[in-house]
Design brief:
binds iron/sulfur cluster, 322 residues
């Protein structure tokens, strides 16, 4: 069974200049054990999609259209209290800054034990054993001793490992990881990505990995959904999208991945800026920046066409080859 499906999701924010849609008509699905990357520039709507899935849209933002179904059960209509229970037990979360996920006045052990006890109803001694085991699994040295220390006693990379343990210790089926490596040193980023990938394989948890970095997607994800101006513009298997991107925006993102070569390259950038939600042009929102734009592009919005496995929203590609 599909683990999660998001269907025609629109998140709206009322404002002084009228209501704007942060994301529009976003549809995606994820299978058990799959890592789905969501990539795009800042403001494209990828974090908003993640926030909607875990029920953490900041009011007055709200789901204006569509639905979110987890393991056959609709969750976008749940109360905040019901969503709080679903978060943690069925959906874990990893955010960019580990300090936002960790309580500075509680030991790492207390936080893990509380989460395990809340969701798995285990006696404290057993929960503590599990917590030590999770610290070991995420690569914390001497976990029997470190379990009784505080978050500030850890480095940034080690703290993010603890956050990963916290997100997984209640054995959720799905984890939303929003820019999990962005706040970390470059040398640590690769280790955290490798850890996330290994744990996803070992536990069978599915991961929605939100990132602005196509390089992280290339290293980690099975499938990728590319977002631009609140919409998904391309989705497909990572290898296919990386080798042969179908959307001009994806091509631009690909060109900005650093490559190891004989000489340092100046990375090509996509010229221009993504339009703000209240200033999206009619037709294709990428048209002002697109090297391939045609007359139809500024008149008619391209819809996402294809299958769940491979689809693109671009007038250049009426159909994605199978
Ligand atoms: Fe470019 Fe037109 Fe495709 Fe938009 S629809 S990405 S403007 S070719």
């Amino acid at each position: 069974m599909t683990l999660l499906s998001v269907e025609n999701l629109t998140v709206a924010f009322p404002g002084r200049r009228g209501t704007v849609n942060a994301i529009e008509d976003v549809s995606l699905s994820i299978e058990p054990g799959e890592i789905l990357g969501m990539v795009g520039e800042s403001g494209a709507g990828k974090s908003m999609t993640g926030a909607a899935i875990i029920g953490l849209i900041e009011p007055p933002g709200h789901i204006a259209k569509g639905r979110i179904v987890l393991e056959g059960e609709r969750i976008d209509t749940k109360s905040p209290e019901q969503m709080r229970r679903i978060r943690g037990r069925r959906i874990g979360a990893i955010f960019q800054d580990p300090l936002t996920s960790l309580n500075p006045v509680l030991t790492v052990g207390d936080q893990l034990i509380e989460t395990i006890q809340t969701h798995l109803k285990l006696p404290r001694a057993e929960a503590r054993e599990r917590a030590i085991d999770w610290l070991r699994r995420v690569g914390i040295p001497a976990p029997e001793a470190r379990i009784d220390t505080y978050p500030h006693q850890y480095s940034g990379g080690m703290r993010q490992r603890v956050v990963i343990a916290l997100a997984l210790c209640a054995e959720p089926r799905l984890v939303i990881a929003d820019e999990p490596t962005t706040a970390l040193d470059v040398s640590v980023q690769a280790q955290i990505i490798a850890l996330l990938r290994r744990l996803a394989r070992e536990t069978g948890v599915a991961v929605v990995l939100v990132t602005h970095d196509m390089g992280v997607i290339a290293e980690t994800a099975d499938r990728v959904a590319v977002m631009y101006a609140g919409r998904i513009v391309e989705v497909g298997a990572v290898a296919d999208v990386l080798n042969a991107p179908n959307h001009p925006y994806t091509e631009g993102l690909m060109a900005s991945i650093p490559r190891i070569g004989p000489r340092p390259e100046i990375l090509p950038q996509i010229e221009g800026a993504m339009p703000r939600p209240h200033a999206r042009p009619p037709g294709c929102a990428f048209a002002p920046r697109c090297p391939n734009r045609m007359d139809v592009c500024s008149e008619q919005r391209p819809e996402l066409e294809g299958s769940a496995a491979a689809a693109v929203a671009c007038h250049l590609k009426a159909e994605v080859p199978a």
